[in-house]
Structures are given as structure tokens and as C-alpha cells.
Write a structure and sequence with these properties.
This protein is 74% helix and 0% strand. The chain has helices at residues 4-19, 25-28, 30-54, 65-98.
């Protein structure tokens, strides 16, 4: 039987994963942010699996795997596009700030 502590642990892991979906780390170091977010998601999934197993099959299936895969692919595509846009915007700001974006001869 699952306890209130089980539920709170699951919510804490979910909050951590959600909090890591955005933030300055995605702009500064997208690979590190993806690794950190991935680790948080892995921990969340591990706890979900543990709780589902503890329920001995009493949890109904909500969506077929093919639907889940398509939904996750769409979500990942959106996150990748956002990360790339943010990286490009930051690079352009850096170029504008240090003047290396100037064209033409030496002045």
C-alpha cells in the first residue's frame, strides 16, 4: 500500500524535473542542462515504476505506447527548437557586445 510519503516523494521528483525544464542553464550549457534534466526525469520514472509495481497491476493503462511516443517526440522537438533558438540569440548578443560582428576594414 502506498503511503503519503510515497506520494510526496513522487511530487518532489516531479517538481524537480519540471523546474529543470527551463532556466539559464539551457542557454549557458544545453548539454549539461539536458543531462541534469534527464537524470531528474530518470529518478521520477524510477519512482513511478516502483509505485506501479507496488500496486500489483491495479493501475490502468491510460494511453497506448504509440501515442505516448508521438507526444514525447513532439515535446522533445519543441524543447530542442527552443534550446537552439536561445543559443543563437545568446551568440548574437555576445557578438554585438564584443564587437566581433563588425564587418569591413579596420577602423
Amino acid at each position: 500500500m502506498l503511503t503519503q510519503e510515497d506520494h510526496m516523494a513522487l511530487l518532489a521528483l516531479a517538481k524537480r524535473a519540471i523546474d529543470l525544464e527551463t532556466g539559464p542553464a539551457w542557454t549557458r550549457s544545453p548539454m549539461k542542462a539536458a543531462e541534469t534534466h534527464g537524470a531528474a526525469c530518470d529518478a521520477l520514472w524510477q519512482e513511478l515504476r516502483r509505485q506501479i509495481q507496488e500496486q500489483a497491476g491495479a493501475v490502468p493503462e491510460i494511453e497506448p505506447p504509440s501515442v505516448l511516443q508521438k507526444r514525447l517526440a513532439t515535446l522533445l522537438r519543441g524543447q530542442i527548437v527552443t534550446t537552439v533558438h536561445n543559443a543563437i540569440d545568446e551568440a548574437l548578443r555576445d557578438i554585438e557586445l564584443d564587437g566581433s560582428g563588425e564587418t569591413g576594414g579596420n577602423q
